[in-house]
Fold these 4 entries.
Entry 1:
Amino acid sequence: MAIARVATRAANGVDAPPVWVEAHLSNGLPAFTLVGLPETSVREARERVRSAIINAGFEFPMRRITINLAPADLPKQGGRYDLPIAIGILAASGQLPVKALEGLEFVGELALTGEIRGCSGLLPVIIEARKIAAGLVMPQANRTDAELVGYQQVYLAAHLQHIAAFLHGQQTLPNIHDSPNWITPPAPNVGCMSEVIGQYQAKQALEIAAAGNHNLLFLGPPGTGKSMLASRILSLLPPLDYEEALQVSAIHSVAGMHLEPQQFYQRPFRSPHHTCSAVSLVGGGAIPKPGEISLAHLGVLFLDEIAEFPRKVLDCLREPMETGEVIISRAAAKLKFNAKFQLVAAMNPSPCGDSGPESRATPEQIRRYLSRLSGPFIDRFDLTVEVPKLPPGTLTADSGDGETSASIAERVAQARQQQLQRAGKLNSELSGSELKQSGFAAADLVFLEQSVTKLGLSVRSFHRLQRVARTIADLAQSPAVERRHIAQALGYRAMDRLLANLSRQ
């Protein structure tokens, strides 16, 4: 019977569900029918496959060809189905042994000459093939993706003729021999904290944010070092472990972005411009792709000049910041992308840049400017820190070398280790019940509640202040959270103080 089945995989967000390419050759007028919910890019595969088979030296069967991509309710897009369709036609026509296809999956785009071109988003395909221990024939151009996963049953091909010789047992295809251990974590090239002059409170807040994975907002006039401080946070964070790095690489692969092996263990740092749209930030599109918040998964999302972002765009971040994922719903499918990011932002305290006596803006103008950030969104920040102008003489004074990022990173790593040993998660992820068991005295919680009530803060802020105080205690190597740690956490509420001063004017 002139029929063959070839295994491949579709692209469905960061998942790669299995797809069977069924090829059937029957008598009748020559025709090439492609069914199974193919998008336009897949329907165009008919012309590419026909030319590739002929130019590779094979015979294109002059019969009625029907190709079914099963399951039929799963949308298929992209050129990754070219290779399995060609293999199915050649196997159904007897030019390739059908038995040799067992236990193998094929993915790749074909050129008209029969060459196999690389595809984007193949990292999830390799990961899924590894889970079921299936052999995967893929383009040689995607060798880097295979090396990141370190799966040794990957076979790399550059031409359709090479695959035919491999299936006939006449030659072998190159595969991956190296394990992922050869990828060494590099030191992030983001500068050192010792280069930042002054701003000791902001540096301390950055250390606390890095230790507990807290969201941080810098508030200060232009030129005080807000962006410089934010870019240094990567030098304080520990590198990703292998499974985390694989998650990040899979998201970048689906987005069509190529990660070099030297960047494999490095946490992502995304800094979108304030003119970006909600779709580019959150994700979406006709064919849903991950946005900036998913590309910052397990890393840092830095929003500079956050007040210049449209308010509707910023409010789209509120739910992903709480859940750690973003769900994109479309008529055809519902996709989920991980978005467990740490938000660091910077803004000016007024439209003119300055606050206080030096400000040229009226209190009403400042209130309108700050209202671009909704109250629930500001509530998502654990720390809001003022970055003031440096006192005269600071730039020319010989203050000696400041503390380096390496020494701060040691304290951050030690504090993170304590958090993982105590609760199995970082302090920013602790629930309300877990916070009660994390070393707070009853009298200190009463003090904190009274402070929150006096400042007019929400219940969410009450819990966030507890998490920050717990992180401060961890950095101080203190098993219990003391009153001074809570007082220090209350000191990192610059935005609340600014709004309270405006309300009194």
Entry 2:
Amino acid sequence: MDLKSEIITNIGNCYHQQSLYNDALEKYREAIRLGELSEEINYIKAKNYNNIGNLYETVKTPKDSAYYYYCKAYYYFKSDYKNTQTQKKNTIGATICTNLGEVWSTNSRIDSSKYYFNKAALYNNKAKDITLGAVLEQKIGVLYYHSHDYKTAEYHLEKAKTVFEEKEDIYKLSESYTLLIKLNKILGNEKKQTEYKDLLFTIEKKINAIQGSARAATLDNVIKEKNEVFRKKEIRLYWIITIILLITLLVIIFSVYSHKRKKDSSFLTLQKERDIIQQKEIETTELKLKINESFDEVVQLAKDNSPEFFIRFQEVYPQVCSAILKINPQLISSELKFCALLFLNFSTKDIAEYTFTSPKTVQNRKNGIRKKLNIPSDTDLYLWFKNL
């Protein structure tokens, strides 16, 4: 994972150099994600957050953005206990401090800038990185340039330029020559200004020649990566569509099956219910016939004043006597027989005729039953018995 992260970081640096800033940013973040699985996560984060800060500074975003990422880089650098005192840790420490010093230099915070430049120098003394030392010299030169100490600025810029010339670092030389042209213009040294302009022109021709082929190779790589990402997304999309279609098909099949099963079940249930209803209707009809026959039989026994009347009445209407006795358990047999006649809707005249008594006696017995069963005087007696 360390090696993978390092490779991705370097690809990001290539993109950054070719001004493919979004692609570079993506690579730096990818390197950090890979670094999460590495034991050197703090070092990887320090290095890549520093690169992100440098990128934001290059694209001229607000200085706060670059400063934020430089500070994050410095935090992880200080947290990297695993690489304590190693060359690579001192190198990244010197780089981060150099960048922080430059941020403060640009904001004219001279004391803060010098503080970080001094820390960068201490780290680089341990790292012994000549090119990084030259970069630091150049940044210090810029600090003195902003402080209007042009002679000191020239000293540091010339010192940096000499190292870059020895290392043949044409990109850093381009920066050095540009700064020295500005400086000598202020100092009024036209000869040096012309000399550096010629050198800058020669260097920029080399840079353009290199960048032409390098940019083509870098763009090819970017296109390949984008195509690969697109291909993976396309494959994933095909899989998603296939899965959705399969799920939809299964849902349709299940819905059709469920509907058919439910329909069949409903039909069987409906048929069963119809059979039950038909059977109940038959039973009800038969019951009605039996009830009608029983009713006619009981009525006839009552008309004949038969001793069997009350016995047969209790067989046909057992619930009537039970309901009456719940209200008044003290009623005697003759009173219950009289209640049966009322239940069968016999009038006062009919009862008098069939029991061989006077209508007045029947009326008195009605009043007595009304009192014993607590039936209000304003309630129809026949209706009351009908509702038992």
Entry 3:
Amino acid sequence: MTLDRGLADSVALPDLVNGRLSAPSPLIGKAVAVVGAGAIGSRVCLELARSGAGQSQRPMLIIDGDQFSTANFGRHVLPVSAVRLAKAGALAAEVRRLHPDLTVEGVATDVFGVTARLQDYDLVIDATGSTPVGLRLNDLAVTTRRLGKPFPPVIHAAIHGNGLAAQTVLVTRSAHACLKCLRPNHGELKANPLKPGVTTAVESGTCGDGAHINYAAPAPMLAATLVVQAALEWAAAPDMPGPRVRTRVLDLEHTAPPKDRNWPIEPLCPACQGPVT
């Protein structure tokens, strides 16, 4: 009798996520909301799904009010066929292509029109890379918590310079700095990874297009990596999630990255220490 070796592969979603891990992913069973479906957020969403988010009836929510354009193609995961589609919906469909059991919802709107929905999630990721949006979301989160109401932890992602460095800041209800603590004054950043005198070149907007900062795909890829790592470590140990401020660089000549650490609260921070209105 001749026996032929057979091979049986599981395609169950948890098995695929955990197939090369030493322990089950701590993101399985966590509901994650991602704000921003651009260069950073598009990669974050795909890797979160591969890491366990969007399972077990705990959905992933993607919020972005913009449409995908040809200018986005060079540093985004969506194909050119998605041009003129809402980024949130197109990206949700792209994530669902990974596995039919993933639960992902795309909402094509400004995040500040649906902030009440964020309270139903375990983790919020600010992948906009926008300082004004990040500070406003930070103010909403810390103020809500100070009023005694629940609001999930928020991971803020940023790219510094023209793609020179990537950074994440995790803000929880704890005795550590919020995002505004790290930016106490306009134009100041305590954890600035850029060397003194290094500036960011802004490209003037063309007709129908706003001003933008030029950088290539490696910068948002690096930022997304930091986000997913921070999310995994938070999910594994919410009370001890590792360094809340993390920085990685792509250019050693123009950067002097601070060590990963938990920064202290700014005593005069108007967001987390000022009066609650």
Entry 4:
Amino acid sequence: MDGRLKVTGQAPYAADHDIYGVVHAVIVDSTVGRGRITGIDTRDALAQPGVLAVIGHHNAPRLAYNDNPGSNNPDGARLRVFQDDRVLFFGQPVAVVVAQTLEKAQHAASLVRVSYAAEQSSTELTSAPADQPTSYARGDADAALGSAEVRLEMTYRTARNHHNPIEPHATIARWDGDRLTLWDKTQWVRDGTQKEIAAVFGIPQDTVRVISPFVGGAFGSGLRAWPHVTIAALAAREVGRPVKLVLTRRQLYFGTGYRPAYAYHLRLGSDRSGRLTAMVHDIRAETSTYEKFTESVMGQGRCCTARPTFGRRTRRCRSM
């Protein structure tokens, strides 16, 4: 229904709104995959004309980060931006520069010097430590496989799948006293952004207004409020001005999540007529070190094929 507006440039996306007095924010990303921040040198950045602030864990206010039941956040402790010196993944926001123009913010961000005490990270499925397996079984699949007339065994592997919608993730944040307005790219206005940001800042949900008339593609990547939304709201409150923050195309690869890689090992047993008598699914999949997300790739195997025996094990590897 909105296709004509989008292809003719008439659909205003989050970053397209013209907000009076808006300034620009650029995120400084971690260059290590795991470790601790040992220092943030902001002197050169702050000396640039038009720079209003450089915010990181060293000077950011403490945020409430209240629990948010019913949200689309995975199980685990969500990332608490600028609340400590811990680095959990490559590209993690470690600072944000706010300046009068986008170009000034970009230049100043390039001058922020962050030092780290790096630790060994795990990025390979075959070597990453695995969580306790999650298992499901019906019957004795191994015994059924052993007696099957025909056996087939194979492994399927998928690479990470990154969302690359035409509209990059972006947020404009403006405080009016204690009330916050967000122009945000989101697929879930109330529980995805409004409720989450209210929980993060410890304010009533009805004091957060979220405006998102159009979404330029998301494919599920807009179903939760990613850290940049919090950063935009935090920066706007600190500088007392509306703040626009737009992720770069590169930042979409580590700032908004992705469909994780997995290795899917499948064993099938059947009789000579082709009727399945046993199935064993063994999946090893990526997840993060602070949240646990698993693709539901095993559900169809459990319910879509008639068979007397079944085995399944899911191992989530802390690969980031």
